[in-house]
Amino acid sequence: MEPFEIQILGCGSAKPSTRHNTSSQLVSLRSKLFMIDCGEGTQLQMARYHASYARLNHIFISHLHGDHCFGLIGLISTLGMLGCGHAHSLHIHALPELEMLLRPQIDFFCHEMPYEVVFHPFRADEAAVIYDDRSVTVQTVPLNHRIACCGFVFREKLGQRHIRRDMIDAYEIPISQMGLIKNGADFVTPDGDVIPNERLTTPPTLPRSYAYLCDTAPMTSVVPYIEGVDVLYHDATFASTESGRAQSTFHSTAAQAAEIAAAAGVGKLILGHFSSRYDDECPLLEEALAVFPHTVLAHEGMKIEVEGSS
Amino acid sequence: MEPFEIQILGCGSAKPSTRHNTSSQLVSLRSKLFMIDCGEGTQLQMARYHASYARLNHIFISHLHGDHCFGLIGLISTLGMLGCGHAHSLHIHALPELEMLLRPQIDFFCHEMPYEVVFHPFRADEAAVIYDDRSVTVQTVPLNHRIACCGFVFREKLGQRHIRRDMIDAYEIPISQMGLIKNGADFVTPDGDVIPNERLTTPPTLPRSYAYLCDTAPMTSVVPYIEGVDVLYHDATFASTESGRAQSTFHSTAAQAAEIAAAAGVGKLILGHFSSRYDDECPLLEEALAVFPHTVLAHEGMKIEVEGSS
User: Fold this and answer.
1) From the CA of A49, how many Å to the nearest CA of chain B?
2) Residue A67 catalytic?
3) What domains lie within chain B, and their CATH numbers?
4) Is the ipTM of this complex over 0.85?
5) Interchain contact A147–B (C-beta under 8 A)
6) Contact A100 B104 (CB under 8 A)
7) Distance CA B11, CA B297 (A)
8) pLDDT digits (tens, 9 = 90+) for B56-69
9) Which residues pair with A36 in a beta bridge?
10) Nearest to A78 among B15, B73, B81 (CB)
11) Chain A: nearest CA to B21, how far in angstroms?
12) Interface test with B, best of A9, A24, A40, A107 (most B CBs within 10 A)
């Protein structure tokens, strides 16, 4: 199975802390590398975990608070300085104000860029597919934060059927036919016999999916958009003891994150965006586990394989 | 003696590295805290070394390359978020373009700031005193980099004379007279005897000084501005084996930094702004020591007491 992996680069909240970096993560899917959010210091986190600058072509920014985007200019500048095979371009998907804020800095600091930075604005008030290639779609999910904010759902597309090796051998199927058969075609033998596709192949792997919902107060309206996703990363800034603070800042408690995960029947929940007040997030994990058992705490450098449900 | 201390927050160059942060340092003088340069991640370095956000009121930016200023917006945002007693204001001394680039971001990201950010532009083509208070002056020194760039010289002002404790006791000098005597006044005893100031006091501590010259190709024209400073931090991006690269990028080798230190007769040289190509800067130290013996390598967290020449 082709890789579909999340790597956490930062899972802290806004206040600087030596325990956590500000928000950023990488989504590696088949041969593509995507980034979600880019807090200050993200480029250094990529260096620390030996992530590939060259493979990164699309960055999705959830909202325009500094701890989710202040690392962009440094990353763009470094990608420009290193060259990094970005002869094509770097695409940034964000609310429209970001281009207005960043373009003057890109023009000033990165005037010898070997690649183009292309902004793709999206609306925060509607769910929409904002990225679509042969492998994956990315859909926005409106969230409920102090300012306009969207989550992102990565959905792998249905792949090709898998050809059975024993059938290749039995019918001496030529390589030239493989692509057609993976796409569902029957095979006609040199003698004119038609071998139905179902006999030659097994069904494609079920598409996998990943949802990133941060920053947000808990909202049940997201459930239809993330129903059954394999992995969910959800805002869990506070423990329930700070639920008043969570409410006033439009964040979630760990228990509330778990309730969303349970309501949507996701495969696994990752808690993140931790307040710097916690020296230890175990109480957050405990309260979430009481609601939803398949929960883990994010930490910098952590890799999570997105596994299909079957 | 009142403290005059430098703390290195970052002494690497532009390319991200897990060995060094990008340029920033703190200058602590008497009760004031100044910052020179503010590369990405500087606010986190302050947190790491428990530096006081509240005491920071003046930031000096040498030039507008990202590795010297990309950390400003995050730091300003955090100072705003934390409050930090900045009811007064935060002053940024930099080339004029910086305000144009940063002001829109400050207005957008930090709209609930409890303090004002005041930009003080300086010219890169002249040496001028750009900061002056009762304790210290800061003077710019034009440097020779790829873009407009200035170094900074911090010069402590001459302090008060020191009253001899034995004389206080011998003449029963009242507290009310101390300030006058420290400023040079004689003391008149109740019997009308005049005790000359020189008998009551010892001379003030010699003013101390610190120069930061980075980024720059070596240039002897700086020597008159830094003659005899107690501590010099100088661009030492490369070893002499990379002198061609140093020349083409308008940086210095460690040996060239040492030659400037020797020509200016400084007390101590700190080498910094290391290229990420070095896993170990000992060869840089060795080549500098061969030219100027009082040399050390900068490293993150390092504190250097600026000691007067007595």
Assistant:
1) 10
2) yes
3) 4-159+205-305 (3.60.15.10), 162-202 (no CATH)
4) yes
5) no
6) yes
7) 9
8) 999 999 999 999 99
9) A25, A60
10) B15
11) 9
12) A40
What pLDDT shows up at residue A112?
76
Residue A200 is predicted with a pLDDT of 94
Proportion of chain A above pLDDT 70, given as a percent:
98
Q: Read out DSSP for chain A? A: ---EEEEEEE-B-SS--SS-PPSEEEEEETTEEEEEEE-TTHHHHHHHTT--STTEEEEE--B--HHHHTTHHHHHHHHHHH-TTTTSEEEEEE-THHHHHHHHHHHHH-TT-SSEEEEEE--TTS--EEEE-SSEEEEEEE--SSS-BEEEEEEEPP-PPEEPHHHHHHHT--HHHHHHHHTT--EE-TT--EE-HHHHEEPPPPPPEEEEE-S----GGGHHHHTT-SEEEEE--B-GGGHHHHHHTT--BHHHHHHHHHHHT-SEEEEE-B-TT-S--HHHHHHHHTT-SSEEE--TT-EEE-----
Q: What is the pTM of this model?
A: 0.91
Check residues A42 and B160 and name the one with the higher pLDDT.
Answer: A42
pLDDT tens string B104-152: 999 999 977 888 999 999 999 999 999 999 999 999 999 999 999 999 9
8 Å CB contact of A16 and B70 = no
Average predicted confidence (pLDDT) for chain A: 94
Cis amide leading into A215 (omega within 30): yes
